[in-house]
Amino acid sequence: MALIYIGVGSNIDREHFVRSGIQALATHFADVRLSTVYESQAVGFKGSNFYNLVVEARTAQSVIEVLATLKQIEYAHGRPLDAKKFSARTLDLDLLCYDQLVQDEPVELPRAEILSNAFVLRPLAELSPDLVHPRLGVSLDSLWQAYDASRQPLTAVMLDCQWSAEDEMSASLNCSPS
């Protein structure tokens, strides 16, 4: 099974859509772990602050299947089919890494935003500090330590995330470091 990392963001009814998005991810993927949830300013447009986190999971799905699953979850959570890249959103799910795969099509992996956005790099480094960035050969912790965190201030948010899957016992995830 592939180890994947998914960036999760919302700036519309943030608590609801982050919780609901995590619940949906937990029904599609295995061994889900969550970073801390961080509040950050919108990037690329003027808008309400976002809640962001990174989800680690395992899957037998191919990259194409994972991308389709993420889009289906976004649409089920009210994201318009024609949503602009830089706009307010109920739920944004980005595949950041798929094992150590390096590719440019159909999606760039690892995703470039890992290096440019604190709200991606910090929670990713928190979950897997020793993971080596497959293009750079440097650990995520080293990349975070070298990042100028003053460029994009983050505020940790305590947010309990719970889901209940059919035919399974209720499970609870705490949106803080595991």
List keywords for this structure.
178 residues, alpha+beta, 6-stranded antiparallel beta sheet, 5 helices, 8 strands, 26% strand
Q: Strand tally, please?
A: 8
Low-confidence stretches: 162-174
**Overall shape:** globular
Helix content bin: 25-40%
Number of helices: 5
Give a description of the structure.
With about 180 residues, the chain is of the alpha+beta class. Helices cover about 30% and strands about 25% of the residues. It has five helices and eight strands, in the order βαβββαβαααβββ. Strands 1, 2, 3, 4, 5 and 6 form a six-stranded antiparallel sheet that branches. A hairpin with a 7-residue loop joins β7 (about 160-165) and β8. The two termini are about 20 Å apart. Mean pLDDT is about 90; it is low at about 160-175.
Question: What's a concise summary of this model?
Answer:
The protein is of the alpha+beta class and 178 residues long. The chain is built from five helices and eight strands.
Helix-strand blueprint:
Elements: E1 2-10, H1 14-28, E2 30-34, E3 37-40, E4 50-59, H2 63-76, E5 92-98, H3 113-116, H4 118-127, H5 140-146, E6 155-157, E7 160-163, E8 171-174
Antiparallel strand pairs: 1-4, 1-5, 2-4, 3-4, 3-6, 7-8
